[in-house]
Amino acid sequence: MLKNIIQLTKKLVSIKSTTGNTKDLDKILDIALSHLKEYRIERFERNGIKSALVYNSPKRPKKFKVILNAHLDIIPGKDSQYTPRIKGSKLYGAGSMDMKASAACLIMAFKKVANQVNYPLGLQLVTDEEVGGFDGAKYQIEKGVMADFVIAGESTNFDIVNKAKGVLKIKISTYGKAAHGAYPWMGENAVWKMNNFLNILKKKFPDLKREQWITTVNLAKIETTNQALNKIPEDCTVLLDIRYIPEEEDNIVYTIKRLVPSGFKFSVVAKEPALLTDKNNENIIQLRKVIREIVGSRVVTRGAHGTSDARHFRCPGVEFGPIGGGIGSDNEWVNIPSLGKYCQILEAFLRS
After folding, report:
1. Is 92 helix (H, G, I), strand (E, B) or coil?
2. What is the pLDDT of residues 203-249, one digit of tens each?
3. How many Cβ atoms sit within 10 Å of the Cβ of residue 268?
4. pLDDT digit string, tens, across residues 175-185
5. For residue 332, what are the contacts with CB-CB under 8 A and spacing of at least 6?
6. b/e string for 319-344 if b means 16 or more Cβ within 10 A?
7. Residue 168: HSE in the Cβ half-sphere, 13 Å Cα cutoff
């Protein structure tokens, strides 16, 4: 089993399946599905983005008991990273940790277990998770794909991620009065007006010096249409990238909006849900038990600052995957022995 996982992982890593590289995104999906021909394969496509759902029944059930979710798209790496290499117990390559090795494991575990269980089991393969998953996982959900429980195979070092921050993108604009830079009293500087607001915002959401499970605000962009150094800018716009904890999902927009001064323009560009599954959910309890039996160590249940396609389902779900490191870096890697254990855990959990 481990030999097959390594071979498939290396094949997947060798493909430059980055956003916009349609040819390779289609190719990697076809390669993944070529290992699953004995099962029912349902294909989806929206806006040129392709995905697939594989299941162990003649037709798609109204609801799956479990869906395994894997994304095949990755953050771009250097050209050399698309030649996978093994050094010691680590397999290096672009997307090896996030999450091509996990995808290989999910494929192999599904193949081994799907015909051994008496409930509807699904494997979801998508190619747009890194850009939000709107035309992959979310589109499938809009087409009626549902589940009781979802496992997104993101690498978690065998921790169970039962909650993840949501994403809120906000655009705020303000306006002043243009004038010559030599006569500031004749105008009203929109950038200074925005600066006053940003100071208030930073006081409410200060820069972090260490990891904390709190809502964070990133000032992603600040701009003005003014291009002249000797002119007072009459407009200023900022874009905020907010990662909010699940506990604040219902009030985060109001929290930000009440900080905005009167007369400013406020708009929500996007709001993506957070993930929050009770750590005492029966599936998490069972998964925790299986991990402990196979790995032989204490199982950590924790939150994640990033996000995954699990959030789209709005049903109990987790992120759970093998050991890896260097995500998105020049030396991204996954631990080879952990891949074998990961498959064992998935198979034992699904059978239980």
Report:
1. strand
2. 999 999 999 999 999 999 999 999 999 999 999 999 999 999 999 99
3. 12
4. 999 999 999 99
5. 77, 81, 92, 93, 94, 95, 96, 97, 98, 324, 325, 326
6. bbbbbbeebeeeebbbbbebbbbbbb
7. 25
CA atoms within 13 A on the CB side of 263: 9
65-93 burial, b if ≥16 CB within 10 A, otherwise e? Answer: bbbbbbbbbbebbeeebbebeeeeebbbb
User: Structure pTM?
Assistant: 0.90
**DSSP three-state, residue 167:** strand
Phi, psi dihedrals of residue 92, rounded to the nearest 5°: -100, 145
What is the C-alpha separation between 284 and 276, in angstroms, rounded? 12
Residue 12's pLDDT band (boundaries 50, 70, 90)? very high
Angstrom distance (rounded) from CA 86 to CA 10: 10
**CA-CA distance, 257 to 266, in Å (whole number)?**
7
Residue 155 tokens read as: 């690498």
Residue 286 and residue 239: Cα distance in Å, rounded?
42
